[in-house]
Amino acid sequence: MHAYGRAVHGGRRVDIATVAGLIMAGVCCFLAILLGGGNPIAMINIPSVIVVFGGSTGAVIAAFPLTTSLGLPNLIKKAMFGVTADPAETIKDIVKYAEIARREGILSLENHVGEMTDEFIIRGIKMAVDGTDPELIRVIMETELEAMMDRHMQGKMVLDNFGKYAPAFGMIGTLIGLILMLGSMEDPSTIGPSMAVALITTLYGAIIANAFAGPIGDKLYANDQTETRLKTIVIAGVMAIQSGDNPRVVESKLLTYLPPAQRDAFLEEQAA
After folding, report:
1. Residue 187 pLDDT more than 80?
2. What three-state secondary structure class fits 98?
3. What letter would DSSP give residue 81?
4. Distance from C-alpha of 233 to C-alpha of 256, rounded to nearest angstrom
5. Which end of the chain has fewer beta carbons closer than 10 Å to its terminal beta carbon, N or C?
6. How far is CA 154 from the centre of its chain?
7. Does the predicted model carry a pTM greater than 0.85?
8. Does residue 35 belong to any structural domain of this protein?
C-alpha cells in the first residue's frame, strides 16, 4: 500500500480512492433501483444510450482538437492508474544529492545521474553540473512546469465538458421521447412506459456527469496539484544545490512545502 492510497497492480499503481469511489457510486445507484422495487434491466435503453453517450462524445470532439478529445481514455487511465511520487521521498533524494555535492563537489553528481529516477530532477542536475546560469535553469524548469500544468488543465477541461454536455443531451433525449409520446396519444396505456423511457436519458446524463466525468475531472486536478508541488520542490532543491547550500538548509527549505503533519512525520522519521 502506498502512502497516498495507491496499490501496485500489474506494474502500475491503482488509485484505490478513485476506483472505490466510482464503484461505490455505481453500487448505490444500483441498490436504489433494487430497494425501490425496480428492475435494473429496465433501466437499459439503447436509444437513450445513443443520444446521451453518442451526443456527448460528439460534442466533446467538436469542442476540442481531435487529438485532445480522443485522449479521453488516457485521461481516465491516468486518474485510475498512475505513479505519484511521495514528496517526502523526493526531499530525501534531493538532500542526499546536496550532501554529495557538498562533500565531493557538484560535478560529482554526474556520476549519480544513473541512480536518479525522476526525469525532471535529472534535467535540473545536469544543467547545474554543466554550469548553466542559475537564472536560466530556473526559467527552463519553470517553463516546463507551466507547460505541464497547461496540458493537465486541458485534460481536465475535456472531462468538465463531458460532464456539462451529458445532462444537456439527457434533456434532449427526454424531449425527443416526450415528442414521440405525444405523437401517439391514441393509446393511453403507452403514456406511462413512454414517459419512463423518456426520463431514462435524463438519468443517464446525470449519472455520467456526477458519478463519472465530475469525479474523474476533479481527480485529475488533484493529481495536477500534487505533481505541481513535487516539481516546485525539485526546482527549489536544484537551485539550492546549484548555489551550494548546506544540506540541512536545503532540507529546511524543502520541508516548507509539506503540510505540517507530513513535515512532522518526516522529521520524526529522520530523528529515528
Report:
1. no
2. helix
3. B
4. 9
5. C
6. 12
7. no
8. no
